[in-house]
Structure to design on (257 residues):
């Protein structure tokens, strides 16, 4: 494994499961000190255990990304312990319930926007000054194919992810001249534990979803994490303000001839 991130400090939120866990592991295997945040303590502990020999470089933190004081304290801890930040992956998110707009509970809508969108604003607000003091770095925010499409029943989720795309572009514009590259990833149908459990409960729907993906399979969390880590690495040094769609072709449109 390469030492691409040796001496670098990476932050990953939602690191207790799925895509965030795989990204934390990949950063750590490539030499980074990783600050892994999540609400789920047990998930975080498992992530660290899975790192094996790299476990010592994963520092875990229980953080609610929707609470400003917790985000501020988390970044302050990173600053105090390392004095720098090189790569931030703002990835924690929730799907929320599925209801038509006229039935969508307003408090649920607010919660999804808070955890998925306001959290990305808060994260960048506190990460940017430390990235600047580190001489530059990268931010990757997790959007979704729902930042491009209109999945029925998922108004809050789609609105939040469209918002993440917009915030990413503004942040990229504001910081490109400060040697800070900011991009987003848009995962498609990714087989995290929750998606696998849902598919087991509703195999007909899962089958239908897979058929609609040109690659004819769901993505693995590690395949999404690899894209996020690439966007955090010098290999993508001229990529600014983009949303990289990683979806097995789901949003190509058109049809196979
Ligand atoms: P996941 O549920 O496996 O992981 C999400 C993690 O975020 C969990 O560990 C959870 O505890 C944490 N989290 C939730 N709310 C939090 C909060 N307020 N503060 C801190 N941590 C919190 O799901 P995943 O698929 O790995 O999701 C990661 C990101 O990818 C999310 O933003 C999600 O919207 C996005 N995404 C996932 C898919 C998919 O198919 N799985 C598709 C598109 C986008």
């Amino acid at each position: 494994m390469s030492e691409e991130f040796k001496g670098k400090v990476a932050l990953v939120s939602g690191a207790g499961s799925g895509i965030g866990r795989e990204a934390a592991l990949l950063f750590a295997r490539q030499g980074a000190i990783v600050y892994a945040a999540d609400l789920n303590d047990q998930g975080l502990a498992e992530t660290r255990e899975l790192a094996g020999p790299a476990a010592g470089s994963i520092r875990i933190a229980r953080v609610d990304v929707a609470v400003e004081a917790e985000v501020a304290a988390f970044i302050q801890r990173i600053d105090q312990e390392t004095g720098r930040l090189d790569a931030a992956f703002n990835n924690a998110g929730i799907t929320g319930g599925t209801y038509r707009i006229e039935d969508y509970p307003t408090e649920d809508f607010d919660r999804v926007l808070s955890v998925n969108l306001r959290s990305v604003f808060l994260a960048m607000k506190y990460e940017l000054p430390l990235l600047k003091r580190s001489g530059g770095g990268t931010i990757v925010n997790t959007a979704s194919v729902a930042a491009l499409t209109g999945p029925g029943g998922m108004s809050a989720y789609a609105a939040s992810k469209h918002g993440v795309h917009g915030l990413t572009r503004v942040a990229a514009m504001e910081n490109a001249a400060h040697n800070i590259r900011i991009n987003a990833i848009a995962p498609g149908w990714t087989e995290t534990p929750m998606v696998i459990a849902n598919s087991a409960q509703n195999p007909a729907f899962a089958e239908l979803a897979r058929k609609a993906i040109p690659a004819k399979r769901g993505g693995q969390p590690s395949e999404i994490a690899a894209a996020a880590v690439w966007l955090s690495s010098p290999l993508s040094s001229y990529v600014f303000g983009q949303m990289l769609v990683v979806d097995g072709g789901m949003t190509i449109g058109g049809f196979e001839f």
User: Anything to note?
Assistant: The chain is about 45% helix and 15% strand. The helical segments are 18-29, 41-50, 68-82, 106-133, 155-175, 193-201, 203-211, 221-231. The CA atoms of residues 80 and 110 lie 33 Å apart.
